[in-house]
Amino acid sequence: METEEWQSAESTKAPFGERVTTWWLTRPWTVRLYLAGGSCMLVSIALFLKTPNSPSSDVATYASCALLASAFLGDAYAWVVARLTHPLMKLATAVFGAIALATATGVARVVVNEATGQQASYFPTSSALLSLLSLVPVIAAMTTILGAIPALLGMAWGFHKLSRSKAAGGQLNVIITLIRGFSAFVILLGASTLSSSNSVIYPAMQWVAAHSAFFFDLQDDDACVPLEGDRVSRINDDLVVIGRLTDSGPQFVRRACALLPETTPLRAQLPGRSSAAPNSASRGPTAP
Question: What is the domain range of residue 46?
Fold first, then answer.
């Protein structure tokens, strides 16, 4: 009997690789990303200690940062969505969104002004487009400012749990907590890089602002353009903004161009409408 039970236990015991695969696949996707990102980070540290500034260590570092950031953003999204019905979360989301949109609008006007050398009000389409793109550095700056303290608290809580952890299952949760806190610092580092003055996003936004202003806010007008290919946007009856594509990018200048009366003849009136007294409806009552 004991031999049969031992044989049945051996037959039902799965191989080590299969058990590891089953354990891995039963973990949530964020946990798998955290563990994969942490493993890549350890590999990158080992490669850096062996060969500093090697391409392999850089690739491992970027891969680990991408995995950790994806896992943390997924965790944050699930946490926020699960609490959207709470009144305080609704209020915080509305306030955060209103501040971000208002700030992005101001940043967009500044970028359009710097890219064109003219007032942003002359280019409404470009300003609206840049308002959406400006959300990226604005949210990055707000994340950097508001996220430093929670990240520090999360790491401290993880170390506190690690010092009191005994069970193996609990140690995994502690490891995930520590990796989650480190992932928050990865997000903060990326956000501070995007919001810094040396970020590549600002030259890209200026390029988009200048070209969108030229193609979307200016029109062809043979009466005001000095050269063929120039485009015009009228400011008032006497001034226009002329745009020209140059080797250094679009250029915008103000020029005088008075609005002249048209010589285009009017077409025939619709049949059935009286043309004897065209302004009779606007006249006052006739005196008796």
Answer: 14-74
The answer to whether residues 184 and 147 touch, using CB atoms and an 8 Å cutoff, is: yes
Pick from 189, 217, 245: which residue ends a domain?
Answer: 217
- Can you give the C-alpha Rg of the chain in angstroms? 32
CA 167 to chain centre: 41
Domain count, the chain: 3
pTM recorded for the entire structure? 0.71
- Quick one: 254 and 137 in the same domain? no
Phi, psi dihedrals of residue 142, rounded to the nearest 5°:
-65, -35
* Domain co-membership, 121 together with 66: no
- 115 and 162 within one domain: yes
Q: What is the pLDDT of residues 10-66, one digit of tens each?
A: 445 667 777 778 878 888 888 889 999 999 999 998 988 888 888 888 898 899 999
Instruction: Say if residues 247 and 253 touch (Cβ distance below 8 Å).
Output: no
pLDDT confidence band for 242 (50 / 70 / 90)? very high
Are 130 and 112 a contacting pair, CB within 8 Å? yes
Mean pLDDT of 114-118: 92
Cβ-count burial of 8 within 10 angstroms (0-12 exposed, 13-18 middle, 19+ buried)?
A: exposed
The verdict on residue 277 lying in a domain is no
State whether 36 and 103 are in the same domain.
Answer: no
Q: What is residue 168's predicted lDDT score, i.e. its pLDDT?
A: 45
